[in-house]
Amino acid sequence: MPKTVGFYGSPVGLWEKGLSLRELGINTVVAGKDAVNQEMVDRCHAEGAKVYGDFSFFVGADTAEKHPELWPIGEDGKRLEPVEWYLGLCPTYEWYRQEKLQEISDFLKLTPVDGIYLDFIRWPCHWEVLQPKIEQSCFCDNALSLFSAATGIEIHGHTTRQKASQILRHHLDAWTNWKAEQITSFVRDVRRVVEEARPGTSIGLFAVPWKPDEYDDAIARIIGQDFPALAQYVDVFSPMVYHAMCGREVGWVGDYSAWLAERTGKPIRPIVQATNDTRTVSPEEFAQILQQALAPSTDGLIIFTLDALLNEPEKLEIVRKTVTEFSRKED
Question: Is residue 230 assigned to a domain?
């Protein structure tokens, strides 16, 4: 089968320029769920492209302002501060989880997409920066109560700070495992809802691109993404290998993709950076990134974002040229 070549963003801007997905070799479109509708899906399908609706879950300062209980609490007993545009949410509240599951069900019953992507499917951490702020959370009363009930661990202390200290000093492994289960169990529920609403719909997951030996195993301790466990319910993983944002070398894209493929046994479709966030990504560097992302260990790639390509026509031409050359090699 041909590799996936996709971008993140609504294709409307591309069409307004008189371009088509087929002529660029694009066979996948990933867009925020609110940007996806019947007309868009029909046109993408007519141009030979699959469509994925992207769902953001545990994120949003606006949501936290409306529902303060979702605002994550740090080990000092205080609310976590937003980092730039980002504020994660506590993923333990059942009413919120059910609300999000209902959104997926309603969307799939109305919109004939080929798949969905799970985004911000983690505990709070703004990771896509040069020096990520590693903070433990959430120590709200709801999370502490659920943790104690699930593990049988009695939590002592008069203040949130004292309770968090007890957990992190004496029960860190149990806390880490429980945090991962909150994410895995939600993805398990997503799989159930998807199969009920539109059987056969593909589920992709945007993964934080860390290994256990980075940031003292923060992928488990902080993020809560257990890749082998998630692989039971996810069809494709898309590590967010934004190399420039994270201060990484180009080769990291291919290396991490290969590692995650071995770790999960699932197709890997890295989402790669075309934007000029943090620093400029030159057309030459972008071409190298595409080659990394089309390595034998991957299922293809997604480009972040379409707008970046439209703003730099040279990068758009690189996509066309790379896909054409790669297709010739496959033939």
Answer: yes
